């Protein structure tokens, strides 16, 4: 729906208003964004568990299921941004489903970010990628819990110092008393300070530390290790998360973009702690004469707003007193004497939005002509033409012209250049509604009926996913977690991380939450998603409807060979396909379905069907590099709440009792030193003689990943370093590559940096070529290599060696078989699997100890024309359970519902 109005329309600029609004929509229609969302069954899991997910991908303008993309990429990165796993998910009508086995080798205990995107979404930048956090936990009876409190205060020489108060307890609640603890302060892995302290009778430890000026406050962490005899507790990591502006930031943003002199301006602000989370703040605004002109105080998560009528030529600053006794000063935006701003009045429950357009101009200036447009989901929904002199005009806009979600109000000048912007949230109360009715209930079995209706109470047919978790085992914070509604309608259209998105979608929404939502829009502002296009107006990354293999046939002179045939042999599943090469030698095989161990052999044939001596190149998949969510999560054992602690104790007790019942014996940890043996390796230390090794199975999992990517991902400390970034290091030691026993440095030409010489090999060799990788970093294993390959006058402690064993065994002289190409897809589809819902265990004693966190997961609940569907599941017995239902009719209607169930 398009709304328009003309205000004081005499002598308006040339050009049609509707044409301009349609022009704004044209890009969104030609290059429509996609929005992705993943519902996961639980916010954290154990090592050895499985994370289940349902994928939804929508066309942003309509929120209909995408018809453009048939492939979704899902990847998991650790808290340092290293991608640990990447898979493909096929999409059917915008939905897909999958799972991630969380084995301890690939996913050690820690915090992770799961991301989802299509190839088409890459055109719009990393801000369009869906991301959410989850954690992997590994509860043990000997684990410690930590209460952490940080504060800043004056130290030596008047500089701020931080004080840490840490309290350690066992899972039982018993304090960890009189233990010698090594405490290390690190910044992104770099050690800043290290000391040993002794805990008190209450398990408490208090100490001061200073943070170097060049350190990143958001990357600081404390590492605690028990130094006592017979220690059994694992090492602990505690992020240094100071909720103080001393290591944080405070920003002020004027409504409409600028502070306009002589006008009552609304000024929003946001205060962030060292880790990027919102923190409480209050203070006073002073002018340049040190007169107080306004006060402010955060309303929610460090955000708030106040009013200020600035004077021309004046400068303003905010003064914030800290609990540490220090006062910080922050500048407000500069005051403008001329310009135009938008001021919005949008009361909760109102049917229209009042837009006040204020212009300040030099005396005697004639009226200026402006366009006021409202854009939602990239589509122009409202347009008005205004002639503004000195003063203000108000435009009333019915909310019926906008869909639910964020609307960008933009004021443009007569040349159609943006002057100012303002975001508003429109709630049409048109989301789908659901009810889950228990039809039959027993102590451990539930049968339920789902009914879905639209806002007019009409039944809705759609696709939905349901997760039911046991609240005694897992705590789901419905205010903190992203939901389908908060992701599509709010977070995906804002800059940065939206903290506690569920707070803004509570029903019924309070007046305070509505104003807090407006402050969020004022502070995290507006983000445009212009597609990355070529000069021809085509998107750089085309949509993918299916998995495909493409490449080119070339002759000995690297010229394309037209008219040839390409034969594809596939395994798992078995398939044989043939495609002709086009006029430039290109070929594409579409609609393939590679499983996790799939491989394809490509063979070029001439017109007579015979293989011949040509080269085959296959287009490589180059994964994007995204910055993950910048706000760290604390480990599970830090500041654990009472409900979660009860779940931890239950899990540990049940596991110990179950092991005892099954006759298993829990042994103290034994460290076994040993390494993988690489068949055919030329390792000078003999089989297994390395500090770290990657085997043939590791290479198969890496697919077509280049050697450089493998080393950067899997070899701790491997990086490009040196004063001029021209050598490769592991931590601070120089790397030497040995390929099939051949020292690569032997061929290193003088005058060439190590980087320039190594890069062709690091980029050429892929996991398909490599049988295994062995890394020698300790003197135990580097000695033999040092004696054979390095000048004896060099320091033996400054060199490390990486032995690469290839399938060909040709060292640095690898050759491909002409006319044949073995292709292993870098990504694959996971084998189909369904959530296992056990029947009643045969032994009642085992039944009492079997308490899964997720008792039910179903990604494909389909309601019929009557809007109804039934499902059944087993529970862990009496207690409280949380049911989270999400989904859509894939035609614009979406649904998010949380329902607590009490089972007696």
Broad structural category: mainly beta
Proportion of residues in extended strands: 35-45%
Tally of separate helices: 9
In the CATH hierarchy, the architecture of the domain at 692-805 is Beta Complex
CATH fold name of the domain at 692-805: Ferric Hydroxamate Uptake Protein, Chain A, domain 1
* Head-to-tail CA distance between termini: 50 Å
Give average pLDDT, whole number.
85
Superfamily at the CATH H level of the domain at 692-805? Answer: TonB-dependent receptor, plug domain
Got a strand count? 54
Q: Could you characterize what this model shows?
A:
By secondary structure, this protein is mainly beta. Helices cover 11% and strands 41% of the residues. Strands 43, 44, 45, 46, 47, 48 and 49 form a seven-stranded mixed sheet that branches. The protein has a five-stranded mixed sheet with strand order 1-30-29-32-33. A hairpin with a 3-residue loop joins β34 (433-441) and β35. The longest helix is centred in the last third of the chain and has 20 residues, at 642-661. Among the domains are: 144-233, Immunoglobulin-like (Sandwich); 556-613; 692-805, Beta Complex (Ferric Hydroxamate Uptake Protein, Chain A, domain 1), CATH 2.170.130.10. The relative contact order is 0.12.
What's the short story on this structure?
The protein is mainly beta and 904 residues long. 11% of the residues lie in helices and 41% in strands.
Q: How is the secondary structure organized here?
A:
Blueprint lengths: L2 E5 L9 H14 L3 E7 L3 E3 L2 E11 L4 E2 L5 E8 L4 E8 L4 E8 L7 E8 L12 E8 L6 E11 L5 E11 L9 E8 L2 E9 L5 E6 L10 E7 L9 E4 L9 E6 L4 E2 L4 E8 L9 E6 L4 E6 L5 E6 L7 E6 L5 E5 L3 E2 L2 E7 L6 E9 L7 E9 L2 E10 L2 E8 L6 E8 L5 E9 L6 E9 L3 E9 L9 E8 L13 H6 L21 H14 L22 E8 L10 E7 L3 E6 L5 E7 L6 E7 L9 E4 L23 H20 L30 E3 L1 H7 L4 H8 L3 E4 L5 E4 L2 E7 L2 E2 L10 H11 L5 E7 L2 H11 L9 E8 L13 E4 L20 H4 L6 E9 L5 E7 L4 E10 L5 E10 L1
Parallel strand pairs: 1-30, 3-10, 19-26, 46-49
Antiparallel strand pairs: 2-4, 4-5, 4-8, 6-7, 6-9, 9-10, 11-12, 12-15, 13-14, 13-16, 16-17, 18-20, 20-23, 21-22, 21-24, 24-25, 27-28, 28-31, 29-30, 29-32, 32-33, 34-35, 35-52, 36-51, 36-53, 37-40, 37-42, 38-39, 38-41, 41-50, 43-48, 44-45, 45-46, 46-47, 48-49, 53-54
């Amino acid at each position: 729906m398009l709304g328009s109005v003309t205000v004081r329309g005499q002598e308006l600029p040339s050009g049609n208003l509707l044409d301009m609004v349609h022009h704004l929509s044209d890009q969104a229609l030609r290059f429509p964004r996609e929005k992705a969302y993943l519902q996961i069954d639980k916010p954290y899991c154990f090592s050895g568990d499985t994370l289940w997910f349902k994928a939804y991908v929508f066309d942003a303008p309509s929120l209909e299921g995408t018809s453009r993309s048939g492939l979704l990429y899902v990847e998991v990165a650790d808290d340092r941004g290293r991608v640990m796993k990447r898979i493909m998910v096929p999409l059917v009508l915008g939905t897909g489903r999958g799972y991630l086995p969380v084995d301890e080798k690939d996913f050690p205990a820690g915090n992770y970010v799961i991301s989802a995107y299509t190839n088409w979404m890459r055109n719009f930048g990393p801000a369009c990628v869906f991301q959410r956090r989850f954690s992997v936990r590994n509860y043990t009876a000997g684990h410690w819990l930590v209460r952490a409190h940080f504060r800043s205060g004056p130290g030596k020489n008047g500089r701020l110092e931080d004080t840490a108060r840490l309290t350690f307890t066992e899972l039982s609640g018993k304090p960890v008393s009189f233990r010698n603890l090594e405490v290390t302060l690190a910044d992104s892995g770099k050690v800043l300070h290290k000391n040993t302290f002794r805990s008190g009778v209450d398990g408490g430890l208090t100490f001061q530390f200073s943070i170097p000026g060049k350190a990143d406050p958001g990357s600081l962490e404390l590492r605690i290790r028990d130094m006592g005899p017979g220690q059994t507790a694992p090492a602990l990591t505690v992020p240094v998360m100071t909720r103080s502006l001393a290591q944080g930031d405070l920003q002020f943003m004027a409504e409409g973009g600028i502070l306009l002199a002589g006008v009552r301006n609304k000024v929003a602000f946001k205060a962030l702690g060292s880790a990027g989370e919102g923190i409480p703040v209050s203070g006073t605004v002073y002018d340049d004469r040190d007169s107080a002109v306004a006060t402010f105080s955060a309303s929610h998560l460090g955000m708030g707003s106040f009013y200020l009528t600035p004077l021309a030529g004046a400068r303003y600053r905010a003064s914030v007193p800290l609990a540490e006794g220090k006062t910080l000063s922050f500048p407000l935006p500069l005051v403008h004497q001329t310009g135009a701003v938008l001021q919005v009045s949008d009361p909760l429950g109102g049917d229209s939005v009042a837009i006040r357009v204020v212009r300040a101009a030099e005396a005697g200036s004639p009226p200026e002509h402006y366009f006021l447009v409202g854009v939602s989901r990239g589509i122009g929904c409202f347009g008005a033409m205004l002639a503004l002199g000195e003063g203000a005009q108000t435009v009333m806009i019915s909310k019926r012209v906008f869909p639910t979600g964020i609307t960008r109000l933009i004021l443009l000048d007569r040349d159609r250049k943006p002057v100012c912007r303002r975001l508003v949230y429109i709630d049409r109360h048109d989301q789908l509604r659901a009810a889950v009715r228990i039809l039959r209930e027993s102590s451990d079995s539930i049968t339920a009926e789902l009914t879905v209706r639209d806002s007019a109470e009409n039944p809705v047919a759609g696709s939905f996913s349901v997760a039911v978790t046991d609240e005694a085992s897992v705590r789901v914070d419905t205010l903190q977690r992203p939901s389908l509604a908060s992701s599509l309608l709010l977070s995906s259209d804002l800059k940065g991380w939206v903290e506690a998105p569920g707070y803004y979608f509570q029903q019924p929404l309070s007046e305070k939450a509505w104003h807090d939502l407006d402050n969020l829009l004022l502070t995290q502002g507006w983000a445009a998603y212009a597609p990355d296009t070529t000069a021809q107006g085509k998107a750089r990354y085309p949509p993918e409807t299916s998995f495909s293999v493409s490449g080119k046939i070339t002759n000995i002179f690297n010229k394309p060979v037209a008219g040839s045939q390409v034969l594809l042999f596939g395994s798992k599943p078995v398939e044989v396909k043939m495609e002709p090469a086009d006029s430039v030698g290109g070929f594409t095989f579409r609609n393939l379905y590679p499983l996790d161990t799939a491989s394809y052999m490509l063979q070029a044939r001439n017109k007579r069907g015979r293989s011949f001596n040509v080269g085959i190149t296959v287009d490589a998949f180059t994964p994007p590099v995204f910055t993950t969510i910048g706000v760290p999560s604390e480990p599970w054992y830090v500041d654990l709440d009472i409900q979660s602690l009860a779940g931890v104790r239950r899990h540990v007790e049940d596991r110990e009792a179950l092991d005892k019942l099954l006759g298993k014996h829990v042994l103290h940890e034994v460290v076994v030193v040993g390494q993988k043996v690489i068949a055919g390796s030329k390792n000078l230390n003999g089989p297994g003689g390395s500090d770290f090794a990657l085997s043939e199975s590791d290479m198969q999992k890496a697919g077509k990943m280049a050697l450089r990517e493998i080393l950067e991902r899997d070899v701790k400390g491997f990086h490009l370093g040196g004063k001029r970034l021209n050598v490769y290091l592991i931590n601070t030691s120089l790397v030497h590559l040995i390929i099939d026993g051949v020292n690569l440095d032997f061929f290193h030409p003088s005058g060439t940096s190590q980087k320039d010489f190594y890069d062709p090999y690091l980029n050429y060799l892929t996991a398909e070529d490599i049988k295994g990788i062995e890394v020698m970093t300790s003197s135990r294993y580097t000695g033999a290599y040092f004696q054979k390959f390095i000048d004896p006058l060099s320091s033996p402690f400054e060199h490390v060696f990486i032995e690469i064993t290839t399938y060909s065994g040709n060292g640095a002289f690898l050759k491909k078989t002409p006319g044949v190409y073995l292709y292993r897809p870098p990504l694959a589809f996971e084998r189909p699997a369904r959530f296992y819902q056990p029947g009643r265990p045969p032994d009642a004693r085992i039944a009492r100890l079997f308490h899964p966190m997720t008792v039910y997961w179903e990604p494909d609940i389909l309601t019929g024309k009557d809007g109804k569907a039934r499902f059944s599941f087993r529970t862990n017995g009496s207690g409280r359970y949380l049911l989270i239902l999400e989904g859509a009719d894939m035609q614009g209607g979406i649904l998010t519902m949380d329902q607590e169930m009490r089972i007696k």
